[in-house]
């Protein structure tokens, strides 16, 4: 049964938790994400959502539990190894290389696929130029998917906010992930940018055939694209289900809105 489950899920967590000193930040976090599923992770501020992304990407080492990525336990992996194994992410606050061009930002994401050593790079041997040509073509291909190929030579910090968000996603996709973690991708976006983002997330899932897990406070976006949603409160999952099930769950309503006062 467990082998079958591992084949069904690209990412699975079992009894995942972390303590900081005497404080339990996340406890008994159990999820399974299908290979092409879009899952939402929602909850009030301070619920532990970004901490979970940090656990999945091994920025934090779990205190207990395990993380299974495409059938393999990530125990002992560092963030670079986890990225190479297939988890890519974006951040709440955009983290681009501001002074570099749009294309160069994407090329940094392609580091997992560039196949030449230091000696070849320093002396600009033929293999260096061959690999650089491949990286250039792949970067433009990825940028074109999001309508950004014509901005390849533009400096990243000169892009408007929505375009910077898209670039960060493109850079994450350049690593060749099996699952993409998006941390509040719609933060700071206007309604039209958010609408475009929804289409892009679906496009990522469909065109790349990967899973997407997102943290988001924009409930229209979450309910509009997520097939399943996990709700976190004080580091614990209080509900899991489809958008319609989550919207009508009393525990979720209480976590977001507080307990209703009884009539006098």
Describe this entry's structure for a reader.
With 264 residues, this protein is α/β, with parallel strands linked by helices. It has two domains: 1-86 and 177-264, Rossmann fold (3-Layer(aba) Sandwich), CATH 3.40.50.300; 95-175, no CATH class. 40% of the residues lie in helices and 23% in strands. It has eleven helices and ten strands. The strands form two sheets. The protein has a six-stranded mixed beta sheet with strand order 6-7-8-3-9-10, sandwiched between helices. Strands 2-1-4-5 form a four-stranded antiparallel beta sheet. Helix 4 packs parallel to helix 7.
Short key terms for the protein model shown above:
264 residues, alpha/beta, Rossmann fold, 2 domains, 6-stranded mixed β-sheet, 10 strands, disordered C terminus
Note the run of SSEs as H and E. Answer: HEEEHEEHEHHHHEHEHEEHH
Number of strands: 10
Output the structural class: alpha/beta
What's the architecture of the largest domain in CATH terms?
3-Layer(aba) Sandwich
Rounded Rg:
20 Å
Count of individual domains: 2
State the oligomer: single chain
How would you summarize the topology of this molecule?
Elements: H1 2-8, E1 9-20, E2 23-34, E3 38-42, H2 49-56, E4 64-69, E5 72-73, H3 79-85, E6 87-89, H4 102-109, H5 118-122, H6 126-145, H7 161-173, E7 179-183, H8 191-208, E8 211-215, H9 219-225, E9 228-233, E10 236-241, H10 243-247, H11 250-257
Parallel strand pairs: 3-8, 3-9, 6-7, 7-8
Antiparallel strand pairs: 1-2, 1-4, 4-5, 9-10
